[in-house]
Write a structure and sequence with these properties.
The protein has helices at residues 2-12, 51-66, 86-91, 137-151; strands spanning 36-41, 70-77, 96-105, 108-117, 122-131, 164-171, 174-180, 187-191, 196-201, 208-214, 218-224, 230-235, 240-245, 251-256, 263-268, 274-276, 284-290, 295-300, 307-312, 322-323, 331-337, 340-346, 357-363, 369-371, 377-383, 389-396, 399-406, 411-417, 421-426. It is mostly beta strands. It has 2 domains: 2-17 and 162-426, TolB, C-terminal domain (Neuraminidase, 6 Propeller), CATH 2.120.10.30; 36-154, Rossmann fold. A hairpin with a 5-residue loop joins β15 and β16 (274-276). α2 packs across α4 (137-151).
C-alpha cells in the first residue's frame, strides 16, 4: 500500500498542496524595435462598463503577454466616427492603431476589430468575430490578438486561444472539471459529482478529454464536449491515470497499479487492447511521448527517488532505459519539447509544512540548465506548441493559479482560481 501512496504522490505531484550556445535558449529574443500599438475602445458610452470594455481590456492584456508589442492604452471610449490623425500618431511613434468594439446581440456577442497602419495611413485588417455566449468574449479577444500578431509576422502565438481543461477540489473527496481559456476568465463547468481528476485532452482539436473518476475503483472516462457523451473505457485497482495521447489520438499512455505497483501501459483506443510497457519492480508513472513518439519519457524511483527516464515506445528493454535528468533528488513531473525538458523538482523536506517544488529547464544535448520558478509548489509543466511557452500549476499561500512562462521574453504570469485548489490540468 505504501507504494501506491508514493506513486499517487509522484503522479499528482501535489494533491493538496545543440550546444551550450543555443540561440533558442536566449532569455530575450532579438526582434529589433518592437512596434508600438495603440488600442482604443470604440464601444458606445452605454456599453462602457459592458462587453466592449471587457474585450478591449482582454486584448490589451493579450498583446502584452505576447511580448511582441509596445502596448499603449486609450483610457477613454473613442467614437467610431473620430478622425484618425496619422501625422500625430507617427510623431508619437505609434505604428499601429487597433480599434475594438463589442455588442450584445440576439445570437450572443458580436465584436469588431479595425487595425490601422499609422505609417501608411491604411486600414490593414477589418474583421468581425461572433460567439453564441456573452461570457466567451475572452476567446474573441484572444483571436484578435493572434490576428494582429500574424499581421506583423511575429512568432506564432496561437496558444492564446488554446483551451485548458482542469480539475479542482470543491470539498474533501470531491472535485469538478472545467474547460477555460488560459486566463481562467472564461469557464465552462463540465463534470461534477464525486472525485474527478487528471483530465487529459483526447485530440488536437480539443473536442473531447479523458479523466479518472473514483467509483468502486479508479475508472477512465472519455467525455465528448460537442455531444455530452460520457463513455466508460477501463478501470483498475490502485490507480489509473491517462498521461498522454498520441498525435493520431489512437494511443493512450496510462499509469496503472492493478497489483499495488505502478507501471506504464499503452492503451489502444479503437480495440481497447492494453500493453504493459515497463517491467521495473518499483514505481513508474506519468509517461509522455517524446522524439516523434519513438520514445516514452516517464517518472520512476529507480534511483531510490523520483527522476526522469526514457524507454523505446515499444516497451522497456534491458540496457535501453536512459536517465534524462541529472539535477535534483526528487523530480516528480516532466514534459518535453524537442531537445528540451521542463521538470518539477522538490527542494525542501519539511515534515509538517508544505514543501517547495521549482521548475527547471534543461537541454538533452548539453549541460544547459535554467531555473524557471523561485518559490511555492510548481507542478504539471506543459509546453505549448511553440516550444517557448510553458503552462504550469502554482500553489502558494493557500491559493492555486495557472502560471504562464514566456521563455524567450522573461515573462511569468499567474492567473488564480479564486477559492479553489487546482488538482491537475492539460492544455
Amino acid at each position: 500500500m505504501s507504494r501506491v501512496i508514493f506513486c499517487i504522490f509522484c503522479c499528482v505531484g501535489f494533491l493538496f498542496a545543440r550546444d551550450n550556445i543555443d540561440a533558442t535558449m536566449e532569455v530575450v529574443k532579438k526582434f529589433g524595435n518592437l512596434p508600438t500599438i495603440l488600442v482604443q475602445n470604440i464601444g458606445k458610452d452605454s456599453n462602457k462598463m459592458g462587453y466592449s470594455l471587457r474585450t478591449y481590456k482582454m486584448l490589451v492584456a493579450d498583446l502584452k503577454v505576447t511580448g511582441h508589442f509596445v502596448v499603449q492604452e486609450n483610457p477613454e471610449v473613442v467614437t467610431s466616427e473620430a478622425v484618425l490623425n496619422f501625422d500625430d500618431y507617427r510623431s508619437s511613434r505609434i505604428d499601429l492603431i487597433a480599434r475594438v468594439s463589442a455588442e450584445v446581440t440576439r445570437g450572443g456577442l458580436e465584436s469588431v476589430l479595425q487595425l490601422y497602419d499609422a505609417n501608411t495611413g491604411n486600414i490593414v485588417l477589418s474583421k468581425e468575430y461572433t460567439t453564441n455566449t456573452t461570457d466567451s468574449y475572452p476567446l474573441m479577444a484572444h483571436r484578435m490578438a493572434i490576428d494582429i500578431n500574424n499581421y506583423i509576422k511575429a512568432p506564432d502565438v496561437s496558444w492564446l486561444e488554446r483551451m485548458v481543461v482542469l480539475s479542482y477540489y470543491t470539498k474533501p473527496g470531491e472535485s469538478e472539471i472545467i474547460v477555460s481559456d488560459y486566463t481562467l476568465t472564461y469557464k465552462r463547468h463540465v463534470i461534477s459529482g464525486g472525485l474527478n481528476i487528471f483530465p487529459k485532452w483526447a485530440n488536437e482539436s480539443q473536442s473531447a478529454f479523458y479523466y479518472t473518476k473514483y467509483l468502486d475503483k479508479p475508472t477512465l472516462f472519455r467525455y465528448d464536449l460537442s455531444t455530452g457523451q460520457n463513455t466508460r473505457l477501463i478501470d483498475s485497482e490502485g490507480m489509473l491515470v491517462a498521461s498522454d495521447v498520441s498525435r493520431d489520438s489512437y494511443k493512450l499512455l496510462l499509469t496503472m497499479a492493478p497489483k499495488e505497483q505502478a507501471d506504464i501501459f499503452m492503451y489502444d483506443v479503437p480495440s481497447g487492447r492494453l500493453n504493459k510497457l515497463t517491467t521495473y519492480s518499483g514505481i513508474d508513472v506519468s509517461a509522455n511521448f517524446i522524439e516523434n513518439e519513438n520514445r516514452i519519457m516517464f517518472i520512476s524511483d529507480r534511483l531510490g527517488y523520483p527522476n526522469v527516464f526514457a524507454i523505446p515506445s515499444s516497451g522497456e528493454v534491458p540496457g535501453k532505459v536512459e536517465q534524462m535528468v541529472f539535477h535534483g533528488k526528487n523530480n516528480n513531473a516532466a514534459n518535453a519539447f524537442g531537445n528540451y525538458i521542463v521538470y518539477s523538482s522538490r527542494e525542501t523536506s519539511e515534515e509538517f509544512e508544505r514543501n517547495t517544488f521549482n521548475l527547471y529547464l534543461i537541454s538533452t544535448k548539453s549541460d544547459f540548465i535554467r531555473r524557471l520558478t523561485a518559490n511555492g509548489v510548481n507542478q504539471f509543466p506543459r509546453f505549448a506548441k511553440d516550444g517557448e511557452t510553458i503552462m504550469y500549476i502554482k500553489h502558494e499561500s493557500n491559493q492555486s493559479a495557472l502560471g504562464i512562462i514566456r521563455l524567450n521574453y522573461n515573462k511569468t504570469l499567474l492567473f488564480p482560481l479564486t477559492g479553489a485548489t487546482i488538482q491537475s490540468m492539460d492544455w
